[in-house]
């Protein structure tokens, strides 16, 4: 499973993710509601421009602890095209 963190809605994110991320089931967490369980997560995409620092720090710490690969995007999914 792939966790997308940040933004209120995913919109086109699902379509634009690279194949290694989009082949998996996507779970979205906006950073404000209840935290999702990371037990089945294998990859995390963090949209840093759309989330608070505490949520980023929580996700980063948990991902390191569990050995989950992460990608950080500053301005949203368009950063993947660079």
UniProtKB/TrEMBL annotation:
Q: Which InterPro entries match?
A: UCP020408
Indicate the family of this protein: Belongs to the UPF0751 family.
Q: What is this protein called?
A: DUF2325 domain-containing protein
Species the sequence originates in? Heliorestis acidaminivorans
């Amino acid at each position: 499973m792939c966790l997308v963190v940040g933004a209120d809605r995913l919109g086109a994110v699902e379509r634009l993710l690279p194949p290694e991320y989009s082949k998996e089931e996507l779970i979205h967490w906006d950073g404000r509601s209840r935290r999702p369980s990371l037990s089945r997560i294998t990859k995390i995409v963090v949209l840093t421009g759309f989330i608070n620092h505490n949520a980023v720090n929580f996700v980063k710490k948990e991902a390191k602890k569990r050995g989950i690969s992460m990608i950080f995007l500053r301005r949203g999914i368009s950063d993947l095209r660079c």
